[in-house]
């Protein structure tokens, strides 16, 4: 495996470990072999196995995103009908659905503080909604200004009760306990904000990324404003699709763009450490079906 391939594999491995929790944004595959790192630093391939399959009634609808919560044994699926459907990952049993969004659902996550039974979703209808999976009822609705879409959201802050959402060139912040909007950052980005994430080991630090190619770092402590709380800006030079943290202290940030370039940054000092122009072909070259089995 070459230098770029090793770096990409290591980044994705640590990212997966960092996000592994009882309630996760994505449903992780079952692994039959434990991952290991060789003495030379290379990563041993994992062996993947299909543990279960679920029969659905989606029809012509298609899936946008999947989220799971092991703590309540629930799998959530967002669909092109603007609905959320829920299943038992162990038995495949259909549990129910949540209906209310009037536009495309961009992100779903079981991430509400101390509430594993609650799932949140954001949508092009300009809202972030919370749903109780015990009765599939909406329990909270946060709305931006008129004609805004909500593309992404994240919980964090020093208290853990700050909800941040990315919209049309704005980063919106609410106090989740009171549903009160506490800040609107509208000068740092010039286009749709596609990602907002809090640093896992520094919950007051917020990363935002956008179609304008900029990745911004904010300090969310105190009364938040861009003049005093924008710490640094990194330029990916093209539209950013996804970002994520990795490294022993989560000091590294991987950044995947919409044209499938992949870069690695030290977000503390804003330096770019790696840039891969064709991430898909590099990943494809290392992929084969020898490590996939049906159990």
From TrEMBL:
PROSITE patterns in UniProt: WD_REPEATS_1, WD_REPEATS_2
Transmembrane domains' residue ranges: none
Name of a matching Pfam family: WD40
The WD repeat ranges on this chain: 98-141
Signal peptide limits: none
Keyword terms of this UniProt record: Repeat, WD repeat
PANTHER family: WD REPEAT-CONTAINING PROTEIN 89 (PTHR22889)
Protein's name in the database: Uncharacterized protein
UniProt source species: Setaria italica
């Amino acid at each position: 495996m070459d230098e770029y391939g090793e770096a990409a594999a290591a980044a994705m491995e640590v990212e997966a470990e960092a996000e592994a929790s009882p309630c996760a944004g994505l449903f992780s595959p079952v692994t039959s072999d434990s991952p290991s790192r060789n003495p030379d630093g290379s990563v041993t391939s994992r062996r993947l196995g299909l543990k279960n399959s679920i029969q659905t009634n989606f029809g012509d609808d298609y899936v946008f995103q999947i989220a799971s919560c092991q703590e309540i044994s629930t799998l959530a699926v967002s669909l092109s009908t603007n609905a959320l459907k829920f299943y038992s990952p162990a038995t495949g049993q259909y549990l129910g659905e949540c209906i209310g969004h009037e536009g495309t659902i961009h992100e779903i996550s079981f991430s509400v503080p101390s509430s594993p039974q609650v799932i949140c979703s954001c949508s092009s209808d300009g809202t972030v909604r919370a749903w109780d999976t015990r009765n599939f009822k909406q329990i909270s609705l946060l709305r931006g200004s008129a004609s805004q879409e909500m593309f992404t959201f994240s919980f964090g802050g020093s208290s853990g009760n700050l909800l941040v959402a990315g919209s049309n060139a704005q980063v919106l912040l609410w106090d989740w306990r009171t549903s009160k909007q506490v800040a609107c950052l509208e000068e740092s980005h010039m286009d749709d904000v596609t990602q907002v994430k809090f640093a896992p080991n520094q919950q007051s630090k917020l990363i935002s990324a956008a179609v304008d190619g900029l990745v911004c770092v904010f300090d969310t402590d105190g009364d938040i404003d861009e003049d005093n709380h924008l710490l640094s800006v990194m330029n990916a030079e093209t539209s950013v699709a996804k970002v994520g943290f990795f490294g022993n202290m989560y000091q590294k940030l991987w950044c995947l763009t919409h044209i499938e370039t992949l870069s690695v940054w030290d977000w503390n000092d804003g330096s770019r450490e790696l840039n891969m122009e064709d991430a898909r072909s590099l990943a494809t070259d290392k992929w084969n079906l020898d490590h996939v089995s049906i159990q």
